[in-house]
Write a sequence for this structure.
C-alpha cells in the first residue's frame, strides 16, 4: 500500500471516529470534508501526471530539434546543386556579356559562395566552423 493510501485510510478512520463521537447530524459535513480531501489527492495526482507528460513532451521536442531534420537529406543537396548549375548558365552569360571576364568571375564567385554557405549550413564542421575557440584540431596545431 502506498504512503498516500495509508494517509487517506487514516483520514477515513478519523472521519468515521468523528461521526461516532458527533452523531448523525454532522454526517454531511464529515462526508463533504472527507470528499474534499479525496478531491485534493486526485487533483494532486492528476497535476503530477500532467507535469510529467509535459516534461516528457518537452524532452521529445528538444531531442527532435537537435537531430538532423528530414529536409537535410541527400535529395535537398542534390536539388540545390542542380539549381545552382542551371542558374549558373544565364548568370555567366549576363556577367560575361556585360562586364566580360570580371563579370564572369563575380557571377561564379557568387555561385560558389552560395553553395559554400549551403554546405556549411548542412555540415557545420565541414569547413572547421564547428570547432570552438581554443580547441585544437586533429593535427595538433592550435587555432
Amino acid at each position: 500500500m502506498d504512503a498516500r493510501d495509508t494517509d487517506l485510510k487514516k483520514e477515513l478512520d478519523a472521519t468515521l471516529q468523528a461521526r461516532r463521537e458527533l452523531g448523525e447530524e454532522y454526517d454531511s459535513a464529515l462526508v463533504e470534508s472527507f470528499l474534499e480531501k479525496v478531491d485534493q489527492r486526485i487533483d494532486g495526482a492528476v497535476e503530477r501526471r500532467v507535469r510529467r507528460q509535459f516534461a516528457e513532451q518537452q524532452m521529445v521536442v528538444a531531442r527532435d530539434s537537435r537531430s538532423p531534420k528530414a529536409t537535410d537529406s541527400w535529395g535537398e543537396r542534390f536539388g540545390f546543386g542542380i539549381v545552382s548549375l542551371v542558374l549558373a548558365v544565364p548568370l555567366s552569360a549576363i556577367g560575361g556579356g556585360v562586364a566580360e571576364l570580371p563579370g564572369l568571375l563575380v557571377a561564379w564567385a557568387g555561385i560558389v559562395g552560395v553553395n559554400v554557405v549551403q554546405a556549411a549550413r548542412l555540415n557545420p564542421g565541414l569547413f572547421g566552423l564547428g570547432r570552438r575557440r581554443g580547441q585544437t584540431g586533429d593535427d595538433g596545431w592550435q587555432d
